[in-house]
Amino acid sequence: MRLSTSTAVSLLAAATLASAQNILFVGNSFTHGNISPTVTYNAGNITDANGNGYGGIPGIFKQLTDSAGLNYAVTIEAVSGQTLQYHLENKASIIGQTKWDIVVFQEYSTLPVPASRTGNPSLFQSASKSLISLVRSKKSAVKVYLYETWARADLVYPDGTPYHNASVTVFTTDLRTSYANVGAQNSVTEVVPVGDNFLKAINNGVADLNPYDGIDAGKVNIWASDSYHPSIYGAYLSAATFFQHVTGKAATSLSVGSGTAAAGLGISSADATRLLALV
Question: What span, in angstroms and rounded, lies between the C-alpha atoms of 248 and 22?
């Protein structure tokens, strides 16, 4: 039997929709961003489960995957200033849906670090375990990623802050260790090393080490003006890191320049190329 053109198109559209990978990003402002244009970037092409109109890192990820011809249906569930324990207690009905193929969990920025640095790693561990168990109880084949966040300059350089007597490197090491422990305890698909790539940007001379003493010529500020959240460069690097680790495609394969995610964020082709090379 020969199908009509309209029927064939409908079937193709249905097949395309069915083949999309449903990915959920769970986190806070390190996921949704807090500056323009990051916070609403590409919001119209992803779903905000909380109805806040966020784009953020998931929005950038969606643009990157679309530009690579990959089919991801992206949802963000992010609440400013909240921990994974909050999401467990208040957002389980969203997180525990059967449709998710991939779930990304991002903890509050300081919770994973040692208690001596004002963290609470045991709460991070217990909340992660419960959330991972929740999503696996709904779909055993779900892929779980942990979003390793970055060292905060505002907690390193000012007097009296938890890492003032240490460094960005020590802060990053503490985060890496804590995320790796939780990842191993729960056999997650991968810990996505966003924080490590922030540090790499600094160590490789792409990003400035200390925004409190000015930004060195030829370098970008990986942090926003609050020295806490990601700048446009930090958000782009975060999304590119997810692109490579989730899709398996090299970040360096992404285009830069007019019409790309980098350009939409206000990042030059040269800076975008330098950032992608870090992933």
Answer: 16
Predicted structure pTM score: 0.93
Residues 94 and 98: their CA atoms lie apart, in Å, by 10
105 forms beta bridges with: 26, 146
- The DSSP secondary-structure symbol of 218 reads T
Enumerate domains of the chain plus CATH numbers.
19-276 (3.40.50.1110)
Predicted confidence band of residue 10 (pLDDT cuts 50, 70, 90)? very low
Residue 19: which pLDDT band, with cuts at 50, 70 and 90?
A: confident
> Facing residues of 147 across strands?
192
Residues in the chain: 279
Confidence band, pLDDT 50/70/90 cuts, at residue 38: very high
Q: CA nearest 23: which of 78, 64, 62?
A: 62
Asked if residues 275 and 206 have their Cβ atoms less than 8 Å apart, the reply is yes
* Radius of gyration in angstroms for the set of CA atoms belonging to the chain, rounded to a whole number: 19
Element at 145 (helix H, strand E) = strand 143-147
Q: Residue 108 region, left (φ>0) first, then alpha (ψ -120 to 50), else beta?
A: beta
The CA distance from 153 to 164, in Å, is 9
In this prediction, residue 14 carries a pLDDT of 41
